[in-house]
Amino acid sequence: MKFLIALMAIVALTFNTNANTEDGGKKEARIQTNAQCGECKERIENKLNYTKGIKFAEMDLTTKIVTVSYNEKKITLDEIKKVISEIGYSADDVEPVKTAQEALPKCCQPGGH
Q: Structural domains in the chain?
């Protein structure tokens, strides 16, 4: 019986250690964008939430800040900012890709509202 209890404790500790290791690369970042409307919010969230290494992304339209939870072992903050810029939006100090920005609906471009 003592052996069984000891074995269960070892298994539980091993499982807990592995779970902590997997979350070891989890980070959260807040990125300022120039999003204009609900369509911008949806476009940014959809792209980020389907990007490898990103756990979750949500944008606050009032502040134009997107909060991103990500695994830094799979994607860097600079890469996340690049993804945002490639769909036509600024990301902190990263300027939007001009052709992507011009391809956005007029209302989603700077000065469009």
A: 25-108 (3.30.70.100)
Could you give the count of Cα atoms lying within 13 Å of 34 in the half-sphere of its Cβ? 21
pLDDT, tens only, 75-111: 999 999 999 999 999 999 999 999 999 999 988 887 7
Cα(65)–Cα(1) distance, integer angstroms? 56
CB contact burial 64-74 (16+ within 10 A = b; e otherwise): bbbebebbeee
Backbone angles phi, psi at 88, to 5 degrees: 110, 10
| pLDDT confidence tier of residue 25, bands split at 50, 70 and 90 | confident
